[in-house]
Hints:
single chain; TIM Barrel
Amino acid sequence: MPEADDQADKSFFPEIPANAEPFFVKGAGAYDWGMQNRLARIFRAASGRTVMLAFDHGYFQGPTSGLERLDLNIVPLAPYADALMLTRGALRSTIPSTYAGGIVMRASGGPSILKDLSNERIALDLEDAAHMNVHAVAVQVFVGGEHETQSVENMTRLVDAGYRYGIPVLGVTAVGRELTRDARYLGLATRICAELGAQFVKTYYVEQGFERVTAGCPVPVVMAGGKKLPELDALTMAYRAVQEGAAGVDMGRNIFQSDAPAAMIQAVGKVVHEDASPDEAYELFRELARETTFA
Length: 295
């Protein structure tokens, strides 16, 4: 048996109030410790933002250009990302278990690019996500699409399961060809996701009114990278997004389809976490790309 602690003079510091440090992620102050801890693996406390590397494209369109070999194209980039957005097949088959960043896992799917993409179902059990130590799951929400209600129900079911396991849900607003990509639509879609329980939301950037989209959403908005742009244009889009309230970016093609992907993801990080201007970040990109070329 251990000896009794009979020291009479203990230091309780009654004059010092108990520390109650607020949690830094927007809208997350009332979440349980486990969910906050998982969000802190995705968003950096110092900046409140994230650089997510998206390479889950294969779940509906197969081997996308730049993703033919995840072990060669993506694994070398992983250390520069705050979090990876991927499928469970990619995680288990390719990503080293020593990876220390956040994992955001695709949890919806079904149709291929040959069919109506809005007809998705839940494609991941949250118990399996917990087994993989996932930090969030992502679900596509097709507001205004043919299967709108079904996709919203997919998200709410994952939100319910997520609270049981302490796993946040990322609502991904999908924009089909028939839908207008403007601030009014994106404000509607992101607000619906947040109101129905998503802990953070991913959506596209628009030049007019994006600050209203982020202000009107009570949880973090992460900007989707979208189609491949010239590097300076992509950096400019990321800069404008975070300056207008985005809590970071989730970029895929603008990174892994770049001529210098490692240089590009570092330049994006400079914009997101250090508020570097597009020109400053582009100069860093060019410098790092040159070093890679002559290495």
